[in-house]
Amino acid sequence: MHIDWGTLGTIGVVAAAAAVSVVLLVAFAILGLSASSTQPVGDPGDGGAPGARSASGVALAVVCLLAAGLIVCYGLYLIIG
């Protein structure tokens, strides 16, 4: 029985990098959704609804979750294929 240690090490590094990337992307998505707008919400004169989110935070969250989903789908494609 022969184990190709170089290939096994490469697979380990790529798997660890993919796992860290997915976790970071989800964390950035949560951060983007929790980002507040430029003015405080809840003041009588702010004109915004309570809990309003900035458009850039939502866009960041969408892009990050899309990227994380693509990484997961590509990994599933490699496993199934």
Description:
- There is one protein chain.
- The protein has helices at 5-34, 55-80.
- It is mostly helical and 81 residues long.
How far the N terminus sits from the C terminus, by CA atoms, comes to 25 Å
Please give the radius of gyration in angstroms: 20 Å
- The helix/strand series, from N terminus to C terminus, equals HH
Instruction: Count all strands and give the number.
Output: 0
The profile of the biggest β sheet is: none
Q: Structural class of the helix and strand makeup?
A: mainly alpha
Strand content: under 5%
User: Helicity, in percent?
Assistant: 55-70%
Task: Provide mean pLDDT, rounded.
Answer: 86
Poorly predicted regions are none
H/I helix tally: 2
Taken from the alpha-carbon principal axes, the silhouette is elongated
List the helices and strands and how they pair.
Layout: H1 5-34, H2 55-80
Question: Short summary of the structure?
Answer:
This protein is 69% helix and 0% strand.
List keywords for this structure.
mainly alpha, 2 helices, elongated, 0% strand, 81 residues
